[in-house]
Write a structure and sequence with these properties.
889 residues; 7 strands; mainly alpha; five-stranded antiparallel beta sheet
Amino acid sequence: MRVSGVAALAVGDAIADWLDCLVRERDFGLPLTLPEGLEEAGPVAGACLRLVYAFRSDLQRYDTIIASAGESIKRNREQIKQALADTKDYTSSIRHALSTLAEARAASGRVASQTDALEHEALVVREASQGAVVEVSSGGIDELLESIISVKTAGAALTETSGGLAVFVDGIARISRRAALLSRSALIEAAHLGSEGQGFGIVATEVRTLAESTKASVRDVSTIAGRLATSTRQVVAATAQALAAAQKLRIDTASISEGVKGIDALVPAFAEPVDVIGAIANEQEAALPALVLNFEQIADLAEATVRAAEDASAIDLDSMFASVQSLLGSYRTGRFHAPALGTRDDSSTLAQAIDRVAEGDTGALADVQCEPGDERVVEAVERFVSTLIALERETLASITRIAVAVGRNSFAWKTIAANLARLKELLNASRLALGESRDAAASLSAASQAIQRVASDLRSTAELPSSALASSVVSLERVRDNVNHVHEFVTEMSSSLERVGAILSLVDEISSETNLLALNASIEAAHAGNAGLGFSVIAGEIRKLADNTHVATNEVGGVIETISRAGEGMRAGMLASAERTAEVEGRARQVESVVDRLLTTIASTVDRTQDLAALANQHVTEFDGLLRELDTTAAAIDASAAAATDSRRLELANIGRAAHEFAAQRRLGTVAERIRELGMTLAGEMDAVFDAAIDSRAVTFNDCTDTDYVQITGARIADLSRLFNVSKVPASGFDPPKFATRYDRAVEAGINAIIDRWVPVNASIKAMFAVDLNGYCFGHYKECRHDWTGDYLTDLNNNRIKRFFEDALSLRCSRVGLGAGADNRPGRTPYSEFERAGCALTRAHNQRPWAIYTYARDTGIVYNDLSLALFAADRRVGTIRIIYDADVV
């Protein structure tokens, strides 16, 4: 029952003062104190109490919404911090890998260069070894031996002949001694005859003189014969030494030949791994640039991931969160002390209006009829409502800013997740390629070691011809020296023979003179008669001695002629030996040059193989280190990817949805309200499009739930010419791919027409598109149905119909109102699965589920997304998504 007028004024003043005090003090705990004597509030007081309680509940609900995001914001902050550190770490690791690969690429060039040089040196070794074999095998040693042997044979024969010369010289010496004795006997006989023997004395004296001359000549010949014998022995000795040296030279040459042949036999074993290395080096030289390029792309992507993490880190959700908490915290919303709220009393129009305001109709006081004392209450209520509505709008705006930041944060995380997935893909592929390069480097190392072993064998084998070559030089010098000695001895012997011949000529002349004297002595003896008989006998003896001397000198002359001929033969043999020695020496110098070249090349090759092996081993070590680093990086990427795809982050995306959903309970005069009302209207028009298609039997309801998506490629591409120009679409299809269903063609014209008509109605609306429960877009705004250009980014932004939007948030938008049964369902889930999961697929009480999400599109721009359920025959078939500016409230 209404209190008296005075009391009503007092109550009204108390209520107005209380409402003004609540606003001024921002304290919902202030008690409502009624005038004394009034034990309970009237209808207006009860309505005001319910109004204050309603707004107090609003603030508490907003506070709850904010508080619910606190843990997610904290987790997000920690994850971003960790992701930023991780991405920097593996970016550094990848940069290090890139640096190492760049060095390996440069080293591969050196390997290829070394291999080319090895191949050239293998050819040089081959040619040099073959040339050495030819030179050594055609060294003329046998001809040299034959010439020396012939000189030795001639020397041996000459030694025997020169011995015969001594015998003959001894015979002439005996004849000269006999002649001397006969000359003395003749002188004795001449003395006995006295004057008659004077002629005999003269003859005897002449004979004695000739005998003495013969004796002197014989002494000279004997001396010369001794020298000749000595020269002959020296010739034989020098020839023997030359022969021994030549035979040693032949042994040395055989050793050189065997060594060179051994080298020549090893060359193919050397060339084979060189060819293997060449092939591997060429493959590496071709593969490493591509691998370096891959790692450059990986490094660029890793740095882009770091930038995305930095972008996410730069979004200060904590400050925004603290700001809205501070805003809400400026009002104390604890329990307030007031009389009982009472029940709703419809006897007061003011109380009814205030209750409607409490229920959400903020304009209910506009036309209310005030009773006496109500004016001040109405004014106070309006001030209170105006202040709280402004507070709620500000709170909603703050939460919207958080939602926008969350959208940007989510886009950064999506970028991070996409980059990490691509990084993992590229790293896996590059790891395989790197593993192949590592295996190739290991094969290169093995081949290098094989070459080293062969090169070591080559070097060992080369020691034989090297030492034999040094020995052959010594042997050759000995041959040359002894041949020169033979030449000197033969020359000396020839000179001696010439002197012997001259002396023998003199002896022969003496024998002739002696023979004449013997004839004169015989004549004198005949004149003397009997007295000259003894002298006649002596003269006869002298004549015999002269004849014997003549015979002896002739015989010695024959020996000398024989010796001379032997000497000439020896001289010819000696000249042949000298010539052969010169030839052998010339060839030996050629062999020495060839073998030196061979040994030098082998030494160079051994050094080069060591360098090559060191490079190959370095590659293996570096690649093993890189593979370990990549494994560590891949593990870090997996951890970062887990954080980047953390499904709990969707809770942050719900903050805007929850705030808008709660704000919709009362009229706040926001853009979101106007767009939601517009959305409800156009969604009803779209329902009608489906119903008309089903009623006309163009499709069935089952067709409208088709999830057997058919990719549009080949001849099917032309079907989309009804929507846009497809002349630049390749036969392989669209990128991103486009699909067709059994129903999309039947409804697309009506759906597109509705979208094209409604988008311009509100300037905040940027796009509008219709999707099924899996995010398949069957209708879109005309600005997203442009002709296909073939440029990926252009088409990605300007031609978005008939493709999927199936990231986690997009799927949540597409499945708005389906209930928990739709949560965590993968993309492209069959409609029957939603039915089996108990999802809300039938329209209840003519309600249309909706939600507002703030998110970043794949273009990176953050928008609000109003998603409203679409129905065909009151059964769920899809969702209309209305995209509008995120920064408007």
